Amino acid sequence: MHPIPFLTEAFATATTGISIVEVVRNSSLVVNCVLGFLVLLSVLCWGVIIFKFIQHRKAVIATEQFIDLFWKNSDFQEVYRKSEKMQDSPIATVFRSGYTEFFETKRSWEAKGIHVIGSKVDELVANIERAMKRESQTRNQLLENSLTLLATTASAAPFIGLFGTVWGIMDAFHVIGKTGNATLGTIAPAISEALIATAFGLAAAIPAAIFYNYFTSNLQKLEGEAANITSDFLNSIKRSLV
Question: I want to staple 98 with a disulfide (CB 3.0 to 4.6 A). Which of 7, 71, 94, 132 is the partner?
Fold first, then answer.
């Protein structure tokens, strides 16, 4: 016997009191298909969780550095220059988008002899705000990518597992009906085999739900910081031009 399957089965038996491998072997084709799909779904979710955790962690660290730089420095040109090194921060990217819009629009207007006074100040500020909001939405979409898989798994996996359980129970009662043997010794193993699908469903859904909420909370915080930076930057532009 190959040592790896043997060790896997021994570990499953020792930790749960049930040989999961043996239960899976004795399950029907439909239940095994459900289990296989749930395992695949769980693997995909863990891949997304690891990737998004690294991505969000980098975004949070870089954003903390940018916020510290922004509030301690009144020279926006200096903030822009230093923030170019903070590519992982969505807030830094939002600021650079607004500053670029301000600089390019102001220079274009001045080249045409248009003075940034009166209503032109409000028009310039509106252009900057649109540019920053557009960049904020783009960055949020990048951070939200693949989170749909976690949300779908969290909501659907328990029901998929329940489907496998119901099918397994139906199959078990069908066999019992044919044999006419309905003792506890014959029913209990069949029910155990059916319930394994629900366990697999919960095992896939619980981590997906936890990390989906974690990533969503991070996104809300980043969106709030982006709104604060946008508001303060626009106010500073208005004060400098009035």
Answer: 132
Q: Mind listing the pLDDT tens digit for each residue in 41-54?
A: 999 999 999 999 99
For the purposes of burial, counting CB atoms within 10 Å of the CB of 100, is it exposed (0-12), middle (13-18) or buried (19 or more)? middle
Domain regions of the chain by residue span: 20-241
**Residues 58-107: pLDDT tens digits?**
999 999 999 999 888 878 888 989 988 898 999 999 999 999 998 888 88
What tokens does 103 get?
């600089």
- Whether the CA torsion 185, 187, 190, 195 is positive or negative: it is negative
Measured CA angle at 8 (ends 187, 22), to 5 deg:
20
Of 125, 61, 67, the C-alpha closest to 91 is 67
pTM exceeds 0.90, yes or no:
no
Nearby residues of 25 by Cβ (< 8 Å), 6 or more positions away: none
Judged on CB neighbours under 10 Å (0-12, 13-18, 19+), 188 is exposed
- Cβ atoms of 95 and 79 closer than 8 Å: yes
